[in-house]
Amino acid sequence: MTSTTFPVTPPVPAEAADSASAGGAAARIRKRLSSRTASVVAIVIAILWTMPTFGLALSSFRPEDDIKRTGWWTFFTNPSLTLDNYQEVLFGRSSSSGQMASFLVNSLVITIPSVLLPVALATFAAYALTWLNFKGRDWIFIGIFALQVVPLQMALVPLLSFFSQGVDVFGVPIMPAWDLDGEQRFIQVWFAHTCFALPLGVFLLHNFMSELPGELMEAARVDGATHGVILRRIVLPLVVPALATLALFQFLWVWNDLLVALIFAGGTAETAPMTVRLAQMAGTRGDEWQRLTSGAFVSAIIPLIVFLSLQRYFVRGLLAGGVKG
Amino acid sequence: MNYDFAGEAPKFVQLLFGIAAFCAVVGVVLLAVDRVPMRRRARLPAAILLAPALLMLTIGLVVPAIRTTWLSFRSGDGEEFVGISNYTWMFTQPEAIIVLRNTFVWVVLVPLLVTTVGLLYAVIVDNTRFERLAKSLVFLPMAISFVGAGIIWKFVYAYRPEGADQIGLLNQLVVWLGFEPRQWLLDAPLNTLFLIVVMVWIQAGFATVVLSAAIKAIPSDIVEAAKLDGASPTQMFFRVTLPTIRPAVVVVLVTQCIGTLKLFDIVRTMTGGQFETSVIANEMYNQAFRYGETGKGAALAVFLFVLVTPIIVYQVRSLRQRQEA
After folding, report:
1. Which of chain B's ends, N or C, has fewer CB atoms near its CB within 10 Å?
2. Is B146's CB within 8 Å of A187's CB?
3. Rounded distance, CA A295 to CA A280, Å?
4. B81 and chain A: CB distance < 8 Å anywhere?
5. How confident is the model over A159-201, as pLDDT tens digits?
């Protein structure tokens, strides 16, 4: 890539072709050289991108003293491994130990409904917006589409007060406070994640559904199928890959989210997910690397496994414009 | 040890409740739609299918966004009208200006670096034997949470005083090269750059995947023609590849812009916004949820929204063009 200093003039000049064929050997050397530089660059990038994770993963299995005193690369001259860090970070009972097992449960409890609900609601909405004929359809779709880009930050303060204080307009109470506490706070996390996921979900599924052949729906309609039947029997089986894509996106988003969890789930082992705990540990016990490394690894391993096994759905989603902020 | 598993039981009860709620919503919607007779104009089924999603979007995004705008003109506790003083604070106070400056640096650098690295890597590994593996390696950080990535890189940047064994990879490299170890995350303004590295590390895989797909979609006759004309690799890249994949490059730039504007987790995990590294989203969280300055937090959120508005307008316009086409 870097070895050529050709003067670039439009259109590709005939001389270039001549010189390339005339100096065939030179061109070949140049090509090989450039492909060698290219390989080096590729290898450097690949190493840069894997080394930090590798260092963290390896460190999480090293004894506490080793982590704090020596770099992980010294492992290769002085190998010693232990599972103590995991034992402590997951199950330790002292408040400083991590108690990650509780937070892991919270992450699961937060994630499952936060994936199921928006996928279902988005499927209904996308079906209506793609295949039903009614006035204002395009405008509703454009509205939902535009909401995709609205920063979450715009919604956080009022949504939190919606849960804690209810709604009243000019002093007239319309909706009482939800007053959720303890495990019930999961409800407001699910609610928030569902709201925030819908714009992307509807947009993605609309994209996929509008590629289904219209004759299918028409035929079913002629046979007297209701919309419920068409949705269940015809559309749903055909959009399973799209649903998988959306579910995967949402899973990664919710599992890895920090902001929504901080605000709606609080910071205790009662409801907060692992990301919140890790952020706390990084802040207050920033040098307890034996816990940080193992904790980070615990929180990363599940999405990594899911991601690797469903990577093609993820790529498909990215290419269909599935990016949420 | 002796971890209290029974203590987690209420969470699973809550989870069952969440799943039951999910089934109930899906069941009710489908039952209702099945009751509606089929007509040409499908206003009623559309209303049933759209209602849950629209309700959630209204409660969770639209109304809160309006309320946030309203709050941004009010005092910290929301009691008094204060005009535009929250906005004057944002643009005049030194600590707020640093936040804006940092956000600006982030928004300029991240999209550029992500696109450059992604494009370079996608071109280099294109059609090589290791393409799949090479892309997976760079893609993997996308599955890790920003918090996890923050910890991974905090470990890379870890500092030990000179003379002691370094445990952070970067400082070890620096020491091997004969320099003094440094506190990478403490010294402004360079520390912001070290945070930006983390974001680039996470997002480069996204750029690689999207751009690589675009490169593969370049019609082969164009490539052949350019080769016949003797285009060098460099010419090939700048005169054929880049112009053809321009739309994909724009997509990457735009999504990175939006994502970076809302960036929160990395800064919060790695520096907590101290040492002059704060950005808008982090400051918004601090003002609204830690200092009780709802008005200032709301003003920052509104400013974020204003910054992404051009992107919304652009997206909606291109969507309408596509719909009409």
Report:
1. C
2. no
3. 11
4. no
5. 888 888 777 666 666 777 777 777 788 999 999 999 999 998 9
Q: Between vectors from CA A152 to CA A147 and to CA A153, what angle results, nearest 5°?
A: 130
Q: Report the residue of chain B nearest A31, measured CA to CA.
A: B233
CA distance B180 to B322: 57
Q: Residue type at A299?
A: S
| Residues A119 and A247: beta-carbon distance below 8 Å | yes
Please, are residues B277 and B127 in contact by the beta-carbon 8 Å criterion?
no
Taking the C-alpha atoms of residue B221 and residue A219, their distance in angstroms, rounded to an integer, is 41
For chain B, the straight-line distance linking the first and the last C-alpha, in angstroms and rounded, comes to 64
Report angle CA A250, A253, A256 to the nearest 5 degrees: 140
Q: How far is B107 from chain A (nearest CA, A)?
A: 14
Residue B217 corresponds to which tokens in the numbers above?
């979609």
Interface test with B, best of A9, A75, A121 (most B CBs within 10 A): A121
Subunit contact A227:B60, Cβ cutoff 8 A: no
pLDDT digits (tens, 9 = 90+) for B170-194: 888 888 888 888 888 888 788 899 9
Q: Which residue has the tokens 């395009």?
A: A138
DSSP, collapsed to helix, strand or coil, labels residue A172 as strand
Contact A315 B204 (CB under 8 A): no
Interface test with A, best of B59, B151, B258 (most A CBs within 10 A): B151
Each of the 325 residues of chain B gets a pLDDT tens digit; together they read 456 677 788 888 889 999 999 999 999 998 888 887 766 677 888 899 999 999 999 989 999 999 999 989 988 777 788 888 889 888 888 888 899 999 999 999 999 999 999 998 888 888 777 888 888 888 889 889 999 999 999 989 988 887 788 888 888 888 888 888 888 888 878 889 999 999 999 999 889 988 888 888 888 888 888 888 888 878 888 888 888 888 889 888 988 888 899 889 999 988 888 888 899 999 999 988 888 888 999 999 999 999 988 888 888 888 788 777 6
Q: Which of A45, A75, A69, A78 is nearest to A57 (CA)?
A: A75
pTM: 0.86
Residue A50 CB neighbour total at 10 angstroms? 14
Q: Give the single-character DSSP code of A136.
A: T
Identify the three-state secondary structure at position A167: strand
Contact A85, A293 (CB under 8 A): yes
The answer to whether the beta carbons of residues A221 and A289 sit under 8 Å apart is: no
The b-or-e profile of B102-139 (16+ CB within 10 A means b, else e) is bbebbbebbbebbbebbbbbbbbbbeeeeeeebbbbbb
- Which of B8, B60, B140 faces A105 most closely, judged by CB atoms? B8
- For residue B45, cis peptide bond before it (omega within 30 degrees of 0): no
Interface TM-score (ipTM) > 0.85: yes
Angle ∠(A54,A58,A61) on CA atoms, nearest 5: 155
The whole-angstrom distance between B94's CA and the closest CA on chain A is 23
Q: What is the mean pLDDT of residues A58-74?
A: 82
d(CA A272, CA A266): 6
